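Lab notebook, bench 4. The sequencing result for the construct came back, and we need a structural model before the next group meeting so we can plan mutations. Quick request posted to the team channel:

Model the 3D structure of this chain.
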Amino acid sequence: MANLQPRVRRTRRGDFELALPDVERQVLRSLPAQLRELMSTDDPAVERLFPPAYRDDPDSEAEYRAMVGGELRNRRLSSLEVMEATIDATRLDEKQLLAWLGAINDLRLVLGTRLEVTEDIYDQGIPEDDPSSLSLALFFYLGWLEEQVVQALAAG
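Done. Here's the predicted structure in token form:
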């Protein structure tokens, strides 16, 4: 994807231009709702967003979850809401772009977990006959877009 035009760039005013083609916006449009729905289930891939802090100590883990679990969940849901609300925007402020970064990262983590992505996939690429090729392509796209956001935030 190195030949593609940048999708996110910092402007001279300090905000961020979001130059997503319509087809990419269409793909991204449905993802926050899908993740929100998945977060309300017991899907094991969602655990990747909320890894245990105390694997070997159930009491400490329960205490930790009681203290911060709701806040972590609400922060993730808030990022998804910002992404949904600004999916058609051409400019974002830094707070909005940081929310996009969180949402993209969460989407990518859950998708990668469901696909059982390993480091090998980066060397192998996506086999054409792989039944999960579209999902893998989306995974790679989200990684590329996440990189674009990080670079834009770091610029200037």
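The longest helix spans residues 58-85.
Will bring this to the meeting.
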